[in-house]
# Entry
Amino acid sequence: MEINRNQYFMVGLILAALGLQFLMVESVVLTAETTSLLAQSTGHGTAHADEGGGLLDTDTPRVAFKKTVRTPPWIGPAMLSAGVVLIFTSLAMRSPD
# Structure
């Protein structure tokens, strides 16, 4: 299957939008539930760390761990430039008949 002009343009738009997003956002903090689900699926030891004390410790607050995801600083400009190149390439191609 051959990739046509519209598909190049759409992939370029998606890459450019993700590149802009990665340029604006430095890190993402996951919720405690998502962190627990991620820890359980990968077998990491902090999956049950947010469980509180025993039955008598009802006043003890539960500790909720939240994972912070940081992307490398080069990923935003790389995705943005690849997206722009694909957009310009699609504009230079012949339109589908």
Summary: The chain has one domain: 5-52+61-92. Residues 5-52+61-92 form one domain. Residues 52-57 have pLDDT under 50 and may be disordered.
